[in-house]
User: What shape does this take?
Amino acid sequence: MLSRFRPDSFTIALIGTVVLAALLPGRGAFAVYFHDFSNVAIALLFFLHGARLSREAVFAGATHWRLHLLVLTCTFALFPLLGVAIVQVAPDWLLPEQLALGVLYLACLPSTVQSSIAFTSIAGGNVPAAICSASASNLIGVFLTPLLVALLLRTQGDGAMSFDAVEAIMLQLLVPFLAGQVLRRWIGGWVARHKLLVGLVDRGSILSVVYIAFSEAVVNGLWQQMPLNGLAGMIAIACVLLVLVLGLTTLLSRWFGFNKADEIAIVFCGSKKSLASGVPIANVLFPAAQVGVIVLPIMLFHQIQLMACSALARRYARRSECGTRSLD
Assistant: This one.
């Protein structure tokens, strides 16, 4: 029972990185060089994703447009609406202003790819549809997340995203991804055979950004500005947000008449938010001193969603097994 809620190795590494940044934050020239290293690692990450993701996977299941439309609506419309509602309702003592911006940013992010597909598979759902929806969400998120962030921050009176930020998104994230797609014909097989390398770059780039972001935040007085009640409130809000989205995606999938396999894909693809995309995009969109606080909600939500969806996937699987036995 306890193993379901045990943090995975990557979450432990994230926690260790935050502790390291809190105790030994990067300063001066080291911080500058490490920031440049993080930018290169992020570009390499999206290049490898472009080389790894086949065109067949991108377009597979595209004819199931009703499912994909519902997943994208939940990811880029339902989530932002819930995020705005929570920020408006939550009192300042429960959700300080800086974490409120992080909640709005979290609500604008695309869905995860790996865990959405993995949980859909464990639960016995429509895996091809999950691959297509999760992949499309990440591709669209490169464009749509910055636009949603600009819109929501403008409504909160915090200004809009600059043209320089859009240009940075294109150069650091989209261009490497497209380059990987172009070169996939020649290097796709090599990338597929070296999944460990891709995984190291994937996780290493996120950890490097988290370290430099929290280092900058600590140097600028993060812990003086962030009370413990804010962290406790953020955990509670992340749990409430996940419960709401899981419940609404389940209800909507049944209301629109999807079968059980499609429902599973919708629930797991439509309720997730991607830490892998969220940290690099935040690094481009926000000032370095803000990134540490901005990504804190997605880091907490990431772990909560993994634990909750792991239990939910096993529950779906057990129901499927019981149904199969009853037919036998």
About this structure: The two ends are 29 Å apart (CA to CA).
